[in-house]
Amino acid sequence: MTLHRRSNVVVLNDFFKVIIDISHSFRYITLDIDSVKETKRDFLRS
Predict the structure, then answer these.
(1) Among 33, 37, 14, 15, CA closest to 25
(2) For position 32, what pLDDT does the model report?
(3) What is the DSSP string of 12-45?
(4) Alpha-carbon distance 34 to 31, whole Å?
(5) Cα separation of 39 and 32, whole Å?
């Protein structure tokens, strides 16, 4: 019983780590998109 519960906790921890990793990568992706927009604007301006 305790072993099963412990494995569930480990699975949950891994799940949260994956979710956090995904959210971080999404944040970086949106940052990249914003920077690309900025460079595009600068390029069009010059």
Answers:
(1) 33
(2) 85
(3) HHHHHHHHHHHHHHHHHHHHHHHHHHHHHHHHHH
(4) 5
(5) 11
pLDDT digit string, tens, across residues 20-40: 999 988 888 888 888 888 888
Gap between the Cα atoms of 22 and 13, Å rounded: 14
What does the block give as tokens for 25? Answer: 């990568």
Dist. CA 13–CA 19, nearest whole Å: 10
Entry field: residues in the chain: 46
Q: Which amino acid is at 11?
A: V
